[in-house]
Each structure stands twice: as C-alpha cells, then as structure tokens.
C-alpha cells in the first residue's frame, strides 16, 4: 500500500483508517434518507488518489452511496464554467454561515439581498435552476456528462433515493418558493427541485470522490479561474456549520454530504502539501453539524499529520 511522503507523517493513512474502522461513534441517519438501507452504521471507508489512476482504499470492496450535497460543488463549478463569475456573484456570496443548511427563512439565508453561499440549500437550488437544459432530465444529463468530461467518472441516479427524498422534501419546496418570490430561480420550482434532488442522488464510490478531488486540486494549482472560486467556497463553507475546518493554521478544502460522504484534497490556500492527493470518505453516521462523524474526525487527524 502506498504511503504518504510528507516528512512529518506520524503514521500512515491506512493505519489511521483502521483506527476508525475499529471505533464506535454516536450519530444519526437523517430523516431525509431511508434508514433501513444503511446496514452497518459504523462502517468506515476512505480512498486516496495519488494520481488519476493510482487510487487506494482501506476496504477491499467499495460500497456505492449517493453523494448528496457533494453535488453542489460540481454544479457550482459547471455554472461558473458556463456563465462566468458575475452571474453567480450577482446572486450569492461565498462566505461561511452559521445558519442550518436547509433553513427555509429568507431572513436567514439572505444577506444584503444575496444568498449566503452556494452550499446551503437556497444557494444550491438557485445554482440547479441555472443548469442548461429544457427540463430536469436534460439538466441532470448535462451534469453527468460534465462529470465524465472533467473527472472521468461515471455516475447514475439512484431513483429510489430520489423518490424518497422528493417525498420528504418539504423544506426544499418552501425554500424554492421563497427563492422564486425574490427572483433568484431561473426555472420552475418543480423542475429545480427535481434537478437538485436527482443530482444529490447520484451514486459514486470513495474512489470516485478521491479521483475527482485529485483532478480538482490540479485545476486549483494551475489557477483555473472557475476552480479557484469553487476552491474558496470549499474552504469557507464546505462542511456546513463546522466550516471552515482549520488544521495546523490552514483551512482544509472539503465538501460533505448527508449520506456520510466527504470529498477533500490537499491544496490549502496557496500551499500544496508535498503529497498531491484527493480523498474520498464514506461513513454513514452524522455528527451534530451534519457531517460524517467518523469522516470528519478522520479528515482532521489526517491533515494534522501532514
């Protein structure tokens, strides 16, 4: 198993992963996801990409899961690539927020007539409404093709998860109605919610997330304009109310999803660690901030030892 090259790594990443495989934590499965589909709530899996092809995992078989809010990072990158920064910055900031990610109140998710950031649901629904396509099926196909083109990863929608989430999406309908009233949405409420939820229901593995993280940190290190803006959002607000995650005086760029998934990479501010890596983590129990309980702690410990 390949080891990290950073001079101050105290123990290798796989030994650290085994610590979390063996541990038991408290946490919860969100009501928006079918709890009976989570067989092993203490499961822990991490994959690390050292290149596009060289990807290792602590588990012999990768369990697929829906990426949930990790899709927000992908759709933000897509919209910035296709419309430029002005169209996004006219609607939202990129700042950290202490409000709940699914808050329905415009008084809370708006500041000076701008949405607080693209990773709370109000921002993500607005971004979803901006994706090109005449209907939600075309929009979802557009993003799947974008993922394939930019990251060489294949993904499909888990229809059962999508339908379950749609049946329990009362907050999103209220958020979308407020966004429509204030003129933020560029599509109908129904199309926007279907697009957003189907993208949350995209199935991937930790190896897929690690590969995406590795490719994306390369884009950031090359000063790709859209990637730099997304990178700033990842630093500031990628981990819900736990953002930003500061380790050794550096912010860790990451995006989490309520499935218990986390995507991260090794480029922090203008510092590229001696190991250029992407990480994908999956462990389904969530902590009080809505991040994977084991995954968040692993991420903190991992970067503490780089």
Concise summary:
This protein has 306 residues and is an alpha+beta fold.
Task: Explain what the structure shows.
With 306 residues, the chain is α+β, with helices and mostly antiparallel strands. It folds into two domains: 154 residues, DD-peptidase/beta-lactamase superfamily (Beta-lactamase, 3-Layer(aba) Sandwich), CATH 3.40.710.10; 134 residues, Beta-lactamase. The protein contains twelve helices and 14 strands. The strands form five sheets. It has a five-stranded antiparallel β-sheet with strand order 2-1-14-11-10, sandwiched between helices. The protein is globular, with a radius of gyration of 18 Å.
CATH topology of the largest domain, anyone? Beta-lactamase
Q: Identify the strand order in the major beta sheet.
A: 2-1-14-11-10
Oligomer: single chain
Number of DSSP E strands = 14
Strand content: 5-15%
Overall pLDDT level = 91
Largest sheet: 5 strands, antiparallel
CATH architecture of the largest domain: 3-Layer(aba) Sandwich
| CATH level 1 class label of the largest domain | Alpha Beta
Element order: H for helix, E for strand? HEEEHHHEEHHEHHHEHHEEEEEEEH
Whole-number count of domains: 2
Low-confidence stretches: 6-11
Which helices and strands appear, and what pairs or packs with what?
Layout lengths: L12 H10 L22 E5 L5 E3 L7 E2 L3 H14 L1 H5 L16 H4 E2 L2 E2 L5 H9 L6 H16 L4 E2 L1 H9 L2 H12 L7 H12 L1 E3 L1 H16 L3 H13 L8 E2 L2 E2 L2 E4 L3 E5 L1 E2 L2 E2 L5 E5 L10 H12 L2
Antiparallel strand pairs: 1-2, 1-14, 3-7, 4-5, 6-7, 8-9, 10-11, 11-14, 12-13
């Amino acid at each position: 198993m390949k080891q990290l090259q950073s001079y101050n790594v105290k123990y290798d990443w796989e030994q650290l992963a085994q610590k979390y495989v063996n541990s038991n934590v408290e946490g919860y499965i969100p009501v928006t996801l079918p709890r009976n589909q989570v067989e092993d709530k203490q499961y822990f899996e991490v994959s690390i990409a050292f290149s596009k092809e060289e990807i290792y995992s602590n588990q012999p078989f990768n369990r697929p899961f829906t990426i949930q809010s990790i899709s927000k990072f992908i759709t933000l990158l897509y919209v910035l690539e296709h419309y430029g920064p002005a169209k996004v910055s006219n609607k939202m900031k990129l700042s950290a927020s202490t409000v709940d990610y699914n808050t329905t109140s415009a008084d809370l998710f708006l500041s000076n007539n701008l949405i607080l950031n693209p990773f709370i649901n109000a921002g993500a629904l607005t971004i979803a409404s901006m994706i090109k396509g005449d209907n939600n099926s075309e929009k979802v196909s557009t993003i799947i093709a974008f993922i394939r083109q930019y990251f060489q990863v294949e993904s499909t929608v888990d229809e059962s998860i999508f339908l379950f989430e749609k049946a329990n999406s009362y907050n999103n309908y209220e958020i979308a109605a407020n966004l429509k009233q204030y003129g933020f949405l560029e599509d109908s409420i129904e199309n926007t919610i279907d697009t957003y939820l189907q993208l949350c229901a995209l199935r991937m593995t930790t190896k897929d997330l690690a590969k995406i993280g590795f490719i994306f940190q390369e884009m950031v290190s090359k000063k790709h304009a859209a990637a730099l803006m997304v990178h700033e959002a990842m630093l500031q607000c990628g981990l819900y109310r736990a953002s930003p995650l500061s380790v050794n005086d550096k912010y860790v760029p990451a995006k989490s999803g309520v499935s218990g998934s986390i995507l991260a990479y090794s480029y922090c501010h203008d510092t590229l660690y001696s190991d250029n890596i992407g990480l994908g983590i999956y462990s389904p129990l969530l902590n009080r901030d809505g991040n994977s309980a084991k995954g968040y702690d692993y991420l903190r410990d991992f970067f503490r030892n780089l």
